[in-house]
Every structure is written in C-alpha cells, then in structure tokens.
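hey all, quick one before standup. I had two proteins in the batch that finished overnight and I want to keep them in one place so we stop losing track of which output belongs to which input. First protein below, input sequence then structure tokens straight from the run.
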Amino acid sequence: MPDWIITEGLTPYEDALAFMEARVDAIAAGKAEECIWLLEHPPLYTAGTSAKPDDLTDPNRFPVYAARRGGQYTYHGPGQRVVYVMLDLNKRGRDMRKFVEQLEHWIIATLACFNLRGEIREGRVGVWVTRPEKPTLADGRMREDKIAAIGIRLRKWVSFHGISINHDPDLSHFDGIVPCGIRDYGVTSLTDLGLPVSMEDLDVALRQEFDRRFGD
C-alpha cells in the first residue's frame, strides 16, 4: 500500500510541488513507494493547463500559481483537505479515464460516510451536491454546489496533484476565480451543509474508502 502522510499546519505550495516532483521521479525509477499526502495550504489560486485569464476575477487577492495539472482555476486554503495522489499507473493499468473515475468514486464514497450524496455531472469536473433548500435556477433546475475538485497530472504514468474536499474553508475566497471555469454554480463545504465533521473524521473516511477502492 502507498505511504500515507498527514501534514499538520499549512504547507507552502512551492514546498508541495517540490516534494511531488521528487517523489514522482523516485516512484517512476522504482526508488520510492507510492504516496498519498494529506495537507492544507495557505490561501492561493492555482491555474491548470486549461485556465482562462478571464476566470481569474481578482488576480491580486492571493498568490497565483501555474500548476501544470489538468483543469482550470481552483482555490486552496485553510479548512480544505488537499490530497496529493502519487500512484504508479504502470502497475494499476494505464487508463487515465478509469483512474479519474476511481478518484470521483473515492470522493463520493467518502462523503457517503457522512450521509452526504455526492454526484458527478456531465461536462462539470468535480463532485457536486444538490441544494433543495435554495431557490431553483431560472430554467427550473435545482441548485447544485461543488464540494470537491479533481486535477491530475501524469509523468511516466505516475500521477500527481490530486483532489480537494471542502471541509470548512472560507467560501468567500472562491469569489476571486470562476472555479474550474464553471459559472452559474456555487461552492459548498461540509460545515456549510451543517455536518458536524472534523478534519480527523474526514481523514479516517478518506483512508477507509481509499483502501477499499485502490487496495491491492
């Protein structure tokens, strides 16, 4: 099984990138084990390879980093569980689509541990929850908010970057971007949904469901 690391406090983004770059190279060379790294960052925005300049609506609010992962703009900050996933797809089947689906279902199963139904939407990256207590949209659709994001990069079929789940971040910090380039929808968190879940509870659920879906 992969090394499972949980880092307390806030990890600078540059330090996380340096660690991932070195670890992925070592995994690809057969010199290190796979790794799952759980952490939090100080407030920042990251731009994926598909990021559009107009989606950075407040460029001076927080530092902005070019992440070189797939996807568009996303926010990281305190109260958000970031999970960097360094897995060797050479050993797990070289199927990027299947891998992303595994990540999606990992998040959904983790949320289900707290009786929360996460869902996937065609054309919208990440995991979403319906908000029946909010007014419906103008076209009659029920409102949905994003609770988790996914952004992956591969090098020699070893993955890095990963997923993030909103535990209790300051949701106003998302206002400086169009999250993942998706307009007309909001963001939410476990706390915003009224769930009495600690970060430790979330970590336990993540580990439990990871072992069920990615274990040998």
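OK second protein, same deal, sequence then tokens:
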Amino acid sequence: MKRTLIWIGALIVGALLGLLGIGWLNTVMDFIATVYTRLFQLLAVPTIVLAVITTFATFGSQGSGRIFGRTLTYTLLTTFAAAAVGAILFVLIAPGNLPLEALGNSTEAIDAPQTSYIDHIISIIPNNIVRPILEGNVLSLLLLAFAVGIGLSKLPESENKAVVVKGLSGLQELLFLLIRGLIWTLPLGIIAFSAQLSAQISAGVVADSIGKYVLVVLGGNVIQFFVVLPLFLLSRGMNPIHVLGKMMPAVLMALFTKSSAATLPVTMETAENRLGVRKNITRFVLPICTTINMNGCAAFILVTSLFVMQNGGTPITLSTILLWIVISVVSAIGNAGVPMGCYFLTLSLMSGIGAPVAILGIILPIYTIIDMIETAENVWSDSCVSAMVNKDLGRSF
C-alpha cells in the first residue's frame, strides 16, 4: 500500500510539472522517461528467456503443457471478450464518417513494415542464435527457450544437467535483484512519464475531431478493465479488487511505458511477491501472455478497422463485424510486439483490402493515449490469467 501511494504521488507531481510548459524541464523529463524505458526493455528479453527455460527445465513438458493449456484458454476467452465489447460499443455509439476535408489534410505517407503473415512466420524461425538476441525478436527467443527448456527436461538426471539448471536459476535470481533495484528508483521514472504525457496533452496532441471513435476505443478498454476481467476473476472465486490492488504497480508501469514486454519484470515481481502467485506459474504464464494475450490490441484492431472501412464506403453488417472479430483476435495474438505494433498491423490490414488508410493519419496523434490504456489493460489481463491459472492448478503444482 505504501508503494502504491508513493507511485500515485509521483504521478500527480509529474502531471503538474508537465502542465508548467517549461521547455528545459520537459526535455529533462523526456530524457529520464527514455532512460527508464530502455532499462526495462534491456531486462525484459533475458527475463522472458530465462523464465521459460527454467520453468520447462524444472517442471517438464507434461506439467508445463497443463499450464499452457489453461493459459491459452483464458487468453482466447478474454481476447474474444475484448473484441466483442468493442463491436457492441461500435454499434451502439455509431461513430459517423469523417468530413472529406479532414481526410484531405491527412494524406501524408505513413511508413509501415511491408511484410506478409508468411514472412512474419518465417522471421520467427531463427537461423542462428545471435540474430534473435540482437534484433530483440521475442517470438524467436521464445521458440529457442522452449526448445532448450524441453531439452533440459528430457535429459537424464546428472551432475551436468544440475549444473546447467542451477546456473540458469542463478542468472535469473541475479536478474530479479537488478529488477528490484530498478523498481526501488521507479518513482522518479513515474514523475518523468507523467510529466511527458501531461506536456503532450497541454500541447494539443490529443485531438477531438473523432470523439465518438475515441469514445468507442477507450470505452471498450474501460469496460474490459473494470467489468469483464473482474467477472472472469469472480467466476474463479477471486476478489478482483484484491487482485487489482496487489497488481497496481505493474498496471501503472504499463500505463506509462506503453510496453507489456518492458513491464514484464515488474509484472512478474509484483505477481510473485504481492499477489502470491507461485513462481512456476508466473515465470511460465506471464512471458507467454506478454506475447499472445493482447486484449487491448484486439479491440483497437476491430474498432479501427470497422471505422476505416465505414469511411471507405463498406457497409458494416453483422457478418462483417463477426468476421473482423475473428480477424482482430488472430491478428492480436500474432502481433510481433514491436513499438506501435497494433497501429501498424491495422494499417497493413486496411492497406490489404484497399480501405482509406489516410484516416489512420488522423488517428496517429491520439494513438499515444490509446496505446497507454491498451497496454495497462493488457498487463491487467495478463495478471488475471496468471491468477486464474494459479487458482486452477495451485494444489497440483
């Protein structure tokens, strides 16, 4: 509770500093925010790899298979729910088409990665060990981690195996020591993140020309966050207020870093030490959820795609909505996890069907705010999935 109050205080102080509009102060806050983001990104990749390897090596592929089955089930259920909530709000609020003059002002080119799904799948399969590390390709590293972890679990018990497993566990403990040290200094980072956001808002980054669209996207995230996910927890006999209170440091961190992967070290540390989730659950479930559990991304892809297609003259029928719910869920799960990944993924989908992608140029200035809330929702969903898996399998693991 004390840490949460400190973080909320840092949030308020940062917001006030950003509203002052002092140039040099904004520059300092941007610098500090960038430093913290880079440090957490630095720790995120080894956290993911070591967590998966040690979990598989310690508990074997059979036990991990049970955990993965539960994780995948809850991930699909929550992600489909997020997309469905977005679809319902889109129909109820019914954002109208943008005026033609607005589209005319947003014809500048938007650079996006031009890769097909086949290319993306091929890029996941590594052809050497070094490249995924240098490129930060999380999916490739997960594939390697799965292979190494399963290999270790299949090795007969021997001194050599024990040395390797203990070495990896030691590295993981060292990594978590560094993470705890970074978290101890995090109030300074929160001040910087909050000041950065406050300065952007006061400078007019947030546009109001597409208010209904923004209302659908943010409203869907709020409902998923405060209604749908708590209902999942209640269905498993857990108190959502208690779970959210314990996971609040990770949720707040996600809000300002806009990266589930960068927040992963905090999410794991918070789930283990505050929520009491077993280590073998957190260190297996959370790295996987960080990669495939994208509630906010699914809702963004669906709502944005419907909005863009509607502006391009495509009738939004029930069959169209149902089809794009499936597409948005599959796309979100397969999202590469790059910065602004959901935005560029939506852009690629719309380009592929010939929709007016210039509309995404209007959405771009406000995407920072949307991305923050989506990431917080994703981490909250990850936390819920790990808590539910822990509840389901706690007695047998």
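Flagging for whoever picks this up: Confidence is low (pLDDT under 50) at residues 104-113, 205-209. The first helix runs from residue 2 to 19.
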